[in-house]
Here is the input.
Amino acid sequence: MADPLSIAASCVGLLTAAGATAKALSAFIRDCREARADLTTVARELADLRITLELLRDDSDGGHLPRPLQAQIVSIVDSCGGVIHGIDAALERHRGRTGPLRWAVDGKREVEALRRGLEAYRGSLSLAVETVTLTLAKSIKNDTEVIRDQTQTVPAIKNDTERILEEIEHLRISLPGEGPAWSINARLEEYLDGLTSYAETVCDEVVWESEEEEGEPSNPGDAPTEDGSSTPRQPDEETPDEGEPPSTSEPSALECHGCGSSTTETDGPLQLLRCGHRLCDGCIHARFSASMLKESTKRPRCCGAASVSPGHAARLFDRQFKRRWDRKFGDRTASTVTCPTAKCQRRRRIMVDNWKRELIQCGGCSATI
Here is the structure.
């Protein structure tokens, strides 16, 4: 099992390796001027990585982090060290008088692939720093003496959590879905899933606890006084004026899990998902649109619990978008059936319409069934 000391030790070791690689980059650029433009971005990534590692090392008091997440952070740090060693090896192979020629042939492409991996790991570690900061803020919130003087802590934690989740999704989309870096991406996907679950757990705990501590009076009929205390409201006496309609209290507004908007701020009602959260039409539309990007390989998700059913977005997109989405993420029947179209008459797997859960078209001729 990983512990905070192992996280700090891993960061110190990677800081040393990153510093040595930065010096090796400068020396290589002096010998091979043609590689200057290619290695400038690598040097910038190393500089950003060193700053991130210093922050993670200083804030690695991970007693509040789950053990599996601590182990994944150590694994990401170690894997990032492997990428740095790969950069060192690539630079060493392209030294000498024939170095510039061999660099143009294959070295440039090799180091660029390593730079993309370094960027992905650096972004993941940056999110780890943000999560550690979120954990420290939550521990401060749990101190009831401090929360009385810092009433802005809970909204700040909620906003920071939403920003972290957005950055996680952005990093997840930016990962290539195929190629030699697939094993790296699979490791990062597992790490991002754990980071997402933990961040959402922290946010939910803070929001629910804050509602219990700072919410409305326990008795709905109690009215707050000027000094903040609540006094029981006496029942209204009957008045002879019966022309006034009885006052009705408005129901509490629900909030969108994605953007935080309430039902009064959105065009339509919030839709309840299988995970228990609610999303507005704008957030659902944005998630399904992002899933059609070339880099995206997964169905739209609200959180780590379950994906968003296409039925929630059926009225938000036209038929052309739905067909393109089905071609990328659609399901097909397990058994083959004969297409009734006279021109086809072949046994094919019929595509399942994810938007209505009906069998609608042949997978070969696209004829409507």
